[in-house]
Structure to design on (639 residues):
């Protein structure tokens, strides 16, 4: 292609996108009934004519256009004419959400911390930022990443001593990604942002059979095979996005990850955060060794009985002796520490199991839920979902009764599968982008504020809008998009820019034999509440996760289906519907997620959902004791 033809093609693509965007803006302001049609046109146009670079340029242009306050006020006045006062939109640019939360070391009083949802906050007596890592300018190429932060470890120990001397509670906090009060503390809070100095392949004191890679058995596609995995050491405060950078620098990758990378790795492990894949456990299952500072400022390196550490070499080391680090290799204690909900101590560092960098091929197909359900029952649940490395389903809680034809009125779902790209049979023409419309909109600074207004204004159309959302995600080998193929970290990360701050969820685990009963219960409650104009503004998800031995993991008892119910902050009726659904699902035997719940927690509920809770309490007393028990845990224990 000549330079002239390239220029003409570029100019043509930009002109087409410009025209479609202008028409969409016109429809939003003057003819809102036609907006869905023009969103579909925009989606097709972006797919055909807009690369990632172009899309980012358009996002920048639009954000520049809406930055002046008077522009946003004009849009607000137009949109709010017929809205009730509690549903009116305020188009803030949300700078407070888009900036990185950064806490200065020198200011340890009069600080305020809040979880991302804003329903729990603390104004602690003192706020500490220990560690010598680089948070703002994180780089895995920094020579400090090859070192262990012993000075930071001693700093954390001194904070625990201070708390105990003054009779105060102490608690570490990461990104505040939990919807519950699991991280809250009013005494001493420890921000872990700088506890990220160490980022290196684990070699020091590692037993020979684990030091340079080790074989593990995996079961994907209903076939058992072996893979070579490796050990990687990271700081307890490392954000998952930074951990991914560090692993990539060493040509490694996480075995699995949740849908967002804004969490800290310790927070994800402490609450048994997971991805999807019945042959893959939650993130906590990848932890092979955890170094924690517990009560009495004692330092423990905790591992399973057949741990990775060479005890003789470890106990002879001068730095180990200097800092009095005690090696514990015991299954019961490790299974308590693995998912510690922040109460077994402060996790200073850990060693994770990782695998060589790999690519995934993703397909998304829209189907009728009844058909998928029947196939699962005929083939057998485990066999069906293990046909792929990753398998998940998004289900519309509602049927679109206004759709033309009987087929359109059936309940829709989106089936997502992901497999190693080299194992995908036949040729495919997979794209290098997914979900053009959602990733485009999510970069616009007012999209989060606008989303609840769209659903509140058109609440009767939510069933149809949900189907349209599922349709826009369709992307498979036989479709025009050809599927999505990329490095695993890009395929697994479902982060949605600004929108991630406005979606919120509750989540519950069910053994495979109870999945359909739970789905039916959700649908029944959603359809009943629909008669009162209370609707969820998103499909709910089924994700399948392998059993995990951690006492407080949602997957402790068996392989589980994690059912995530999602909505958008500010949509009228969603929150009370969540509360109703949670009560109903718990009565059915659900295992709640430690970080995704809206109902109060109490001891009978926890003991029913987590049969090893009493065993965990014994180990919590050993490692953390009262110093690390916050109000959330104490309410559970005494209720």
């Amino acid at each position: 292609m000549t330079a002239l033809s390239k220029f003409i093609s570029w100019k043509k693509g930009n002109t087409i996108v410009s025209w479609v965007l202008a028409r969409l803006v016109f429809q939003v302001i003057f003819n809102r009934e036609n907006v869905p049609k023009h969103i579909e046109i925009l989606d097709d146009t972006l797919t055909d004519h807009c690369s990632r670079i172009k899309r980012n340029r358009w996002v920048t242009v639009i954000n520049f256009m809406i930055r002046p306050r008077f522009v946003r006020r004009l849009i607000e006045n137009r949109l709010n004419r017929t809205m009730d006062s509690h549903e009116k939109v305020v188009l803030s640019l949300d700078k407070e959400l888009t900036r990185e939360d950064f806490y200065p070391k020198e200011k340890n009083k009069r600080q305020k911390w809040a979880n991302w949802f804003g329903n729990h906050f603390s104004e602690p007596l003192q706020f500490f930022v220990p560690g010598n890592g680089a948070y703002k300018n994180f780089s895995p190429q920094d020579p400090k990443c090859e070192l262990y932060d012993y000075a930071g470890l001693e700093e954390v120990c001194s904070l625990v001593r201070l708390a105990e001397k003054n009779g105060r509670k102490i608690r570490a906090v990461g990104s505040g990604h939990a919807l519950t009060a699991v991280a809250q503390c009013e005494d001493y809070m420890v921000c872990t942002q700088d506890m990220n100095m160490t980022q290196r392949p684990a070699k020091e004191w590692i037993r020979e059979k684990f030091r340079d890679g080790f074989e593990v058995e995996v079961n994907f596609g209903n076939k058992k095979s072996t893979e070579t995995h490796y050990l990687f050491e990271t700081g307890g405060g490392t954000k998952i996005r930074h951990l991914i950078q560090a692993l990539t620098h060493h040509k490694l990758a996480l075995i699995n990850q949740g849908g967002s990378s804004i969490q800290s790795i310790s927070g994800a492990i402490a609450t048994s955060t997971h991805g999807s894949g019945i042959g893959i456990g939650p993130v906590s299952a990848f932890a092979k060794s955890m170094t924690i500072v517990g009560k009495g400022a004692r330092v423990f390196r905790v591992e399973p009985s057949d741990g990775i550490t060479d005890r003789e070499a470890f106990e002879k080391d001068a730095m180990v002796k200097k800092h009095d680090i005690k090696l514990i290799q015991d299954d019961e204690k490790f299974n308590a520490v693995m998912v510690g909900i922040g109460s077994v101590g402060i996790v200073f560092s850990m060693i994770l199991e990782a695998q060589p960098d790999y690519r995934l091929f993703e397909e998304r197909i829209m189907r009728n839920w009844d058909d998928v359900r029947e196939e699962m029952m005929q083939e057998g649940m485990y066999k069906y979902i293990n046909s792929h490395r990753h398998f998940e389903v998004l289900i519309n809680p509602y049927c679109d009764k206004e759709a033309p034809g009987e087929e359109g009125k059936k309940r829709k779902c989106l089936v997502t599968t992901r497999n190693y790209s080299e194992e995908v049979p036949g040729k495919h023409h997979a794209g290098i982008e997914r979900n053009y419309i959602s990733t485009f909109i999510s970069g616009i600074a007012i999209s989060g504020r606008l989303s609840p207004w769209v659903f509140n204004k058109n609440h009767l159309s939510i069933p149809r809008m949900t189907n349209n959302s599922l349709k826009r995600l369709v992307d498979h080998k036989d479709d025009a998009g050809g599927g999505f193929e990329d490095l695993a970290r890009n395929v697994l990360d479902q982060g949605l820019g600004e929108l991630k701050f406005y979606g919120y969820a509750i989540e519950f685990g069910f053994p495979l034999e109870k999945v359909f009963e739970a789905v039916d219960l959700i649908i029944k409650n959603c359809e009943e509440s629909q008669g009162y104009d209370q609707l969820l503004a998103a499909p709910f998800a089924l994700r399948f996760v392998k059993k995990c031995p951690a006492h407080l993991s949602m997957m402790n008892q068996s392989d589980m289906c994690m059912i995530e119910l999602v909505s958008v902050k500010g949509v009228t009726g969603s929150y009370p519907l969540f509360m109703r659904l949670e009560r109903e699902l718990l009565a059915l035997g659900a295992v709640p997620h430690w970080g995704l719940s809206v109902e109060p927690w109490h001891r009978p509920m926890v003991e029913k959902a987590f049969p090893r809770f009493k065993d965990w309490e014994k180990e919590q007393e050993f490692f953390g004791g009262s110093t690390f028990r916050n109000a959330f845990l104490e309410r559970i224990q005494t209720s």
Remarks:
- Confidence is low (pLDDT under 50) at residues 95-99.
- The radius of gyration is 25 Å.
